[in-house]
Design brief:
The protein is an alpha+beta fold and 109 residues long. Helix content is 36%, strand content 16%. The chain is globular, with a radius of gyration of 15 Å. It binds zinc ion.
Length: 109
């Protein structure tokens, strides 16, 4: 989709915090494609926590959230803008296209 929109990008840059899935150097923007459960997409039904082993999952998922927040902060310090695309958004191609266009325009200013 990014290609069809004319954006140039690279995949999985291990030199940047969090190893972003997609890097757009020209826009100083990285994109993380996040699973709704593992990264706890707020308000998404796919992010509901299991009702068994509650403590285990709370620790694990809270740690994932904290790590994501830390990565985004570290990227900010390096002047990179972060964009998160959620797993559930991948199904809505039109919505995703609009989100990418509007976010990338903002980060280009
Ligand atoms: Zn979701």
């Amino acid at each position: 989709m990014l290609h069809s929109l004319g954006y140039r990008f690279r995949l999985h840059n291990k030199k940047l915090p969090g190893t972003p899935d997609i890097v757009l150097p020209k826009y100083k923007t990285v994109i993380f494609v996040h699973g709704c459960f593992w990264h706890q997409h707020k308000g998404c039904r796919k992010s509901r926590r299991p009702s068994s082993n509650v403590e285990f999952w709370n620790i694990k998922l809270d740690r994932n959230i904290a790590r994501d927040v830390g990565n985004i902060k570290d990227l900010e310090k390096l002047n990179w803008n972060s964009l998160i695309v959620w797993q559930c958004e991948l199904k809505d191609e039109e919505g995703l296209r609009e989100k990418l266009i509007s976010e990338l325009q903002l980060s280009n200013k």
